[in-house]
């Protein structure tokens, strides 16, 4: 059957699912399939966690919109997501996994992320769903509902049609990418990367590690870093407990400024971006955190400084090597290795492969990079 014929067999008319009985019947049917398409709509403008608003399922023939706000028993959907016999086809799925975990207390497994698959097959890095559909199926998708209020009821026909299209073409794309991956002998690469996405979705990052993400933290001394670490950890715990965005509580640059100045009194607590109402509400707590952190004995180590001139030259040459390796593999360079991973190699006195570079990337890019770095340092 040609791809054109398969396209004609897909009915993109959305089917609304708002009863537990209807959902249970559909999930039982979907669990007899080898794969189903999956997507979510959610809102997150004023909350820390996503607010699940809709779950879309595509079975290759029709598109179903599951109204999770109306159904009191979503257990059949959870069982479908956890059924390892059924592949869940998704596109750029990290936020969807978080949303489903929030809704059902479960992360789907196994998954086939078509964005990752497209990159591994050489189509391009970070392709959006619409671009992937356009490249593979020559179908143009509308963009009209990207900023919709998905929690409103009833949803407009435009919203429903948009949501249905998010899963309509995924099964077809899955089949095409699966065929290419098998031909390229890269299906295991895709599975490895998708498994890593699942593991990441199941882990909650420790609040004590968020200070490592703050821009410019390398400028701080160890005692200041301890303050930054404790402020960021408090902000993370508080944001989760109150279900509010981190920056609505305390902006990152404010955390950095407080760690840098280490104020001891309310009168000296003022920072650019720190509003008076925030000081009135949290000022005493912030001062306590700063005072306590400044007395810590278990100080965090200094963070690596920006690359010096010699390291910068090494990074430039390694990036050239990555470009060569990417061309040989027919893949985007950023899929092989991230800039931060290259910087870590350059900054290490005795560089070792870690993280993503220990999997299929070891032979493709990791070991060649180590050899190149050793060669550069011996020259």
From TrEMBL:
<dbReference type="GO" id="GO:0042780">
    <property type="term" value="P:tRNA 3'-end processing"/>
</dbReference>
<dbReference type="GO" id="GO:0003676">
    <property type="term" value="F:nucleic acid binding"/>
</dbReference>
<dbReference type="InterPro" id="IPR044876">
    <property type="entry name" value="HRDC_dom_sf"/>
</dbReference>
<dbReference type="Pfam" id="PF00570">
    <property type="entry name" value="HRDC"/>
</dbReference>
<keyword id="KW-0540">Nuclease</keyword>
<keyword id="KW-0963">Cytoplasm</keyword>
<dbReference type="GO" id="GO:0005737">
    <property type="term" value="C:cytoplasm"/>
</dbReference>
<dbReference type="InterPro" id="IPR002121">
    <property type="entry name" value="HRDC_dom"/>
</dbReference>
<comment type="function">
    <text>Exonuclease involved in the 3' processing of various precursor tRNAs. Initiates hydrolysis at the 3'-terminus of an RNA molecule and releases 5'-mononucleotides.</text>
</comment>
<dbReference type="InterPro" id="IPR036397">
    <property type="entry name" value="RNaseH_sf"/>
</dbReference>
<dbReference type="InterPro" id="IPR012337">
    <property type="entry name" value="RNaseH-like_sf"/>
</dbReference>
<dbReference type="GO" id="GO:0008408">
    <property type="term" value="F:3'-5' exonuclease activity"/>
</dbReference>
<dbReference type="GO" id="GO:0033890">
    <property type="term" value="F:ribonuclease D activity"/>
</dbReference>
<dbReference type="Pfam" id="PF01612">
    <property type="entry name" value="DNA_pol_A_exo1"/>
</dbReference>
<keyword id="KW-0378">Hydrolase</keyword>
<comment type="similarity">
    <text>Belongs to the RNase D family.</text>
</comment>
<keyword id="KW-0269">Exonuclease</keyword>
<dbReference type="InterPro" id="IPR002562">
    <property type="entry name" value="3'-5'_exonuclease_dom"/>
</dbReference>
<dbReference type="InterPro" id="IPR006292">
    <property type="entry name" value="RNase_D"/>
</dbReference>
<keyword id="KW-0819">tRNA processing</keyword>
<dbReference type="InterPro" id="IPR010997">
    <property type="entry name" value="HRDC-like_sf"/>
</dbReference>
<feature type="domain" description="HRDC">
    <location>
        <begin position="221"/>
        <end position="300"/>
    </location>
</feature>
<dbReference type="InterPro" id="IPR051086">
    <property type="entry name" value="RNase_D-like"/>
</dbReference>
<dbReference type="GO" id="GO:0000166">
    <property type="term" value="F:nucleotide binding"/>
</dbReference>
<protein>
    <recommendedName>
        <fullName>Ribonuclease D</fullName>
        <ecNumber>3.1.13.5</ecNumber>
    </recommendedName>
</protein>
């Amino acid at each position: 059957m040609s791809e054109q014929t398969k396209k004609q067999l897909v009915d993109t008319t959305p089917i609304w699912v708002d009863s537990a009985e209807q959902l249970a019947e559909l999930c039982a049917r979907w669990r007899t399939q080898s794969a189903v398409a999956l997507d979510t709509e959610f809102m997150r403008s004023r909350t820390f966690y996503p607010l699940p608003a809709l779950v879309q399922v595509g079975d290759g023939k029709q598109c179903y919109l599951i109204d999770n706000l109306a159904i009191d028993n979503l257990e059949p959907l959870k069982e479908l997501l956890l059924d390892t016999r059924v592949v869940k086809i998704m596109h750029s799925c990290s936020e969807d996994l978080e949303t489903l975990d929030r809704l059902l207390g479960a992360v789907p497994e196994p998954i086939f992320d078509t964005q990752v698959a497209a990159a591994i097959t050489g189509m391009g890095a970070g392709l959006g769903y619409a671009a992937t559909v356009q490249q593979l199926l020559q179908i143009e998708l509308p963009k009209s509902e990207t900023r919709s209020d998905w929690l409103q009821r009833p949803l407009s026909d435009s919203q429903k049609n948009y949501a249905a299209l998010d899963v309509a073409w995924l099964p077809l794309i899955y089949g095409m990418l699966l065929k290419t991956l098998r031909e390229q002998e890269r299906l295991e690469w895709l599975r490895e990367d998708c498994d890593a996405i699942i593991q990441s979705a199941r882990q909650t990052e420790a609040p004590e590690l968020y200070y490592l993400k703050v821009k410019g933290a390398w400028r701080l001394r160890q005692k200041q870093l301890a303050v930054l670490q404790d402020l960021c950890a408090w902000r993370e715990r508080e944001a989760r407990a109150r279900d509010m965005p981190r920056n609505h509580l305390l902006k990152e640059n404010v955390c950095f400024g407080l760690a840098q100045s280490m104020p001891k009194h309310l009168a000296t607590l003022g920072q650019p971006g720190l509003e008076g109402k925030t000081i009135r509400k949290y000022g005493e707590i912030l001062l306590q955190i700063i005072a306590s952190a400044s007395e810590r004995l278990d100080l965090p180590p200094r963070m690596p400084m920006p690359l010096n001139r010699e390291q910068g030259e090494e990074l430039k040459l390694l990036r050239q090597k990555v470009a060569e390796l990417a061309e040989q593999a027919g893949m985007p360079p950023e899929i092989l290795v991230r800039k931060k991973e290259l910087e870590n190699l350059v900054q290490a006195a005795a560089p070792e492969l870690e993280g993503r570079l220990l999997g299929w990337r070891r032979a493709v890019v990791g070991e060649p990079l180590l050899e190149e770095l050793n060669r550069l340092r011996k020259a």
